[in-house]
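Could someone model adenosine-5'-triphosphate with this protein?
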Amino acid sequence: MSVAGINVLVDETRARMAQAEPQAGKAPLLSVRGVSAYYGSIRALKGVDVDVHEGEIVALIGANGAGKSTLMMTIFGQPQAREGTITFAGQDITKLPTHEIARLNLAQSPEGRRIFSRMTVRENLQMGAAVNGGRHFAEDLERMCTLFPRLAERIDQRGGTMSGGEQQMLAIARALMSRPRLLMLDEPSLGLAPLVVKQIFSAVRDLNAREGLTVFIVEQNAYHALKLAHRGYVMVNGAVTMSGTGQALLDDPQVKAAYLEGGSH
Ligand SMILES: Nc1ncnc2c1ncn2[C@@H]1O[C@H](COP(=O)(O)OP(=O)(O)OP(=O)(O)O)[C@@H](O)[C@H]1O
Ligand SMILES: [Mg+2]
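Reply:
Sure, complex below.
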């Protein structure tokens, strides 16, 4: 067979593999490998492995104090991983300072929202857009107002006077204004009424389905998070103890007993 013929065969095989397994051969967008992090002498993360592939929604669930927020913060370099490697879009970001990580294409809506409370909704969104130089501001403002009509109604209201649910929507919208490749959400449902939680989760599902946005979500609300996610991880005492598809974890007796029974869904 000629070299050209072999190349055609190789290409066909690759195409078939890609069809059978969408992620086959593709490096994860975010890869956390053997990561440990410390607060003083306390080891808050113990050799954590987590992958997030392009186009996926991945959930991380676990009890209070398990280390979920610490993992999110460690990805952002604060605290820095003392062992292991974190790569994003093929770049090793393990030792990058936080301000340089913030310039990459990953955006975070941290636990407790942390919007700019004295700035208006519009100004908060401007701050989010500033990360990528404020290009597409008008267009993205429009998109956010369609996604969260409540923000459109309150565009000139100060962030700090908005309700908890509105502030959460604003925090997510601000993160989206930078047009991230990866959106990381820490407990978006915290303290919110079930209806608002539904609205926020359905906005995230739409963004993923329509625009292919990749999402890494940390949640106490295991039921909603695993329903939303393609895949999930369970964290106990700073270590990942289980992983699988969202549905497999929802059906798992141990997950049911620890995180779903008597839950708020
Ligand atoms: N700045 C800090 N200094 C010292 N210890 C910390 C610090 N931040 C978190 N910890 C500890 O690290 C552990 C993991 O905390 P973390 O906030 O990551 O948990 P979590 O899984 O996000 O919990 P929750 O669901 O309550 O938000 C906890 O024992 C916590 O007390
Ligand atoms: Mg937390």
